[in-house]
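From the methods appendix. Each design record in this collection lists the tokenized structure first, followed by the designed amino acid sequence. Records were kept in a plain field format so they could be parsed without special tools. The example shown here is representative of the layout used throughout.

RECORD:
FOLD TOKENS (393 positions):
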């Protein structure tokens, strides 16, 4: 029998890591990227100006009675730490780590009156990921072994960043570009978006996947026109064009998109119920849950099975080892996302740098399953990173 859970602890960390939008000046990820806030000129140049990095990283540690510690990092910072310490910890302490189904159910329904999506489910996800890390460490197995094992020898990655042309040279299977101009910048902005795509198509050749990530910034008409103009340059998919709440808009966009162009979304959706809505309303061709935001591994297993039954691909939003251990085990997750966190998107660096020791990165756009062969998620917290525990219980 496994040792019981002794204590759950929540810490916050600033500066990159799981809150990967929390970067320094001059980073591509904060350079005039279209957002729903871009209709306000004062918030158009920088997403940090309206607070995209306000939360910071949540670190969850779960210590067993034998001293083994599982941990995970996600986005959530101090408010998520409060929820973990003051609310969620009671559903774990004294329990067996194998009770992850009952623990998840109690965390979700115990917070349903104020949670269901967003920050609360980020906190639940962080706890769930730490629990799976603990299970792997106690059983001396990588998490992907606990999920059914690898269905392929290696992961292949597309790269998200401002330089798909450089990503091609690094061996990635595609490049997802941030969309820089939204409806507030009118036809001129739309033309600039298409010009950027045309430039990258010219540099990358005809066969390299190119995608736009629209980060919830558009309306249905703009997204439809962008998609049809982008068709001429072989855009593979248009991602998260609309508000996550606009299921009706996504259903219309999927119908209006050019034949062969994929419509994708889901990184800001949560739980099996949210993804059921996306799939039953036929909103998209690929769902992109973030395992650190959608409810964790326990919930993503349910989401993925639902998608598999409908022939929908699950390509998790990039979340480092937490998505790699999942993707390698799922037939309907044929490739993965890698976010280029180097400021100029010109080199591969660990996605959650500097928070994780031994964080694996793709080599030539690939990562062998055997690179994940360490207990749990196979990473440790970098001791050089200062943890702050704002609340106790
Ligand atoms: C590049 C996008 O604007 C986001 O920053 C990115 O985190 C996310 O949307 C993604 O799909 O990687
Ligand atoms: Mg995205």
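DESIGN:
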């Amino acid at each position: 029998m496994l040792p019981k859970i002794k204590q759950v602890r929540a810490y916050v960390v600033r500066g990159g890591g799981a809150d990967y939008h929390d970067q320094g000046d001059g980073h591509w990820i904060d350079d005039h990227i279209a957002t729903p806030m871009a209709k306000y000129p004062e918030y158009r140049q920088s997403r940090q100006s309206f607070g995209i990095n306000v939360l910071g990283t949540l670190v969850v540690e779960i210590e067993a009675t034998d001293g083994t510690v599982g941990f995970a990092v996600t986005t959530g910072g101090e408010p998520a730490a409060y929820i973990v310490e003051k609310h969620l910890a009671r559903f774990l302490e004294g329990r067996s780590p194998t009770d992850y189904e009952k623990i998840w159910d109690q965390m979700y329904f115990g917070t349903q009156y104020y949670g269901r999506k967003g920050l609360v489910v980020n906190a639940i996800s962080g706890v769930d990921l730490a629990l799976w890390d603990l299970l792997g460490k106690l059983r001396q197995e990588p998490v992907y072994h606990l999920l059914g094992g690898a269905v392929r020898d290696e992961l292949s990655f597309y790269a998200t960043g401002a330089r798909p042309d450089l990503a091609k040279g690094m061996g990635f299977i595609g490049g997802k570009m941030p969309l820089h101009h939204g409806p507030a910048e009118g036809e001129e902005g739309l033309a600039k978006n298409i010009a950027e795509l045309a430039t990258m198509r010219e540099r990358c050749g005809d066969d390299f996947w190119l995608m736009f990530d629209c980060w919830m910034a558009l309306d249905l008409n703009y997204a439809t026109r962008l998609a049809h103009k982008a068709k001429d340059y072989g855009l593979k998919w248009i991602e998260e064009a609309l508000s996550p709440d606009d299921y009706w808009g996504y259903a219309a966009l999927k119908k209006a998109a050019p034949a062969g162009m994929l419509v994708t979304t889901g990184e800001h959706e949560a739980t099996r119920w949210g993804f059921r809505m996306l799939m039953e309303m036929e909103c998209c061709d690929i769902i992109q849950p973030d395992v650190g935001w959608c409810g964790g591994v326990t919930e993503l297993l349910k989401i993925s099975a639902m998608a598999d039954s409908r022939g929908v691909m699950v390509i998790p939003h990039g979340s480092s080892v937490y998505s790699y251990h999942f993707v390698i085990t799922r037939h309907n997750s044929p490739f993965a996302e890698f976010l280029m966190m180097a400021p100029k998107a010109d080199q591969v660096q660990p996605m959650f740098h500097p928070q994780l020791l031994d964080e694996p990165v793709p080599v030539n756009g690939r990562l062998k399953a055997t690179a994940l062969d360490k207990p749990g998620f196979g990473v440790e917290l970098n001791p050089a990173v200062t943890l702050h525990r704002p609340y106790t219980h």
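APPENDIX NOTE: The chain has eleven helices and 14 strands.
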